[in-house]
Amino acid sequence: MKHTVYKGLESPCMIKGFLSTDYWMYIGCCGAAVIFIVLTLRSAFTTGVWEQFYFTVLTALLVLPIIRHHLKKRARSTKFEEKKQVHTINNFSITKLLISREK
Q1: In this predicted structure, what is the pLDDT of residue 14?
Q2: CA nearest 70: which of 10, 12, 25?
Q3: pTM higher than 0.70 for the full model?
Q4: Contact, 85 vs 7, CB < 8 A?
Q5: At what angle do helices 51-76 and 20-47 cross, to 10 degrees?
Q6: Among 65, 67, 75, 74, which Cα is nearest to 15's?
Q7: Which residues neighbour 57 within 8 Å (Cβ) at sequence distance 6 or greater?
Q8: Half-sphere exposure of 27 (CA within 13 A, CB side)
Q9: Regarding beta strands 14-15 and 18-19, do their DSSP bridges make them parallel or antiparallel, or are they unpaired?
Q10: Secondary structure letter of residue 67 according to DSSP
Q11: Is the Cβ–Cβ distance between 18 and 70 less than 8 Å?
């Protein structure tokens, strides 16, 4: 019985161009930015000092696209060199390999 094995067909799970774990990290960063903006807006209304609110909004507008670009770039990069090789495996070669490893 022969089986054909193709190397390089595996691809990671992706959500909107991000790796699945990176997507949830980015969503968390966006949520944290929104919370900081709301808190500084509330503080600006109560104290009348708007510089901290402007700084927070500016920081969020600069940092979030940088994080997004970095995470999408990390998802595009290949971690290994894909080789389009085909290997044919049969029971004789598997048995021979297992017997040689038992010795």
Answers
A1: 75
A2: 25
A3: no
A4: yes
A5: 180
A6: 75
A7: 37
A8: 9
A9: antiparallel
A10: H
A11: no
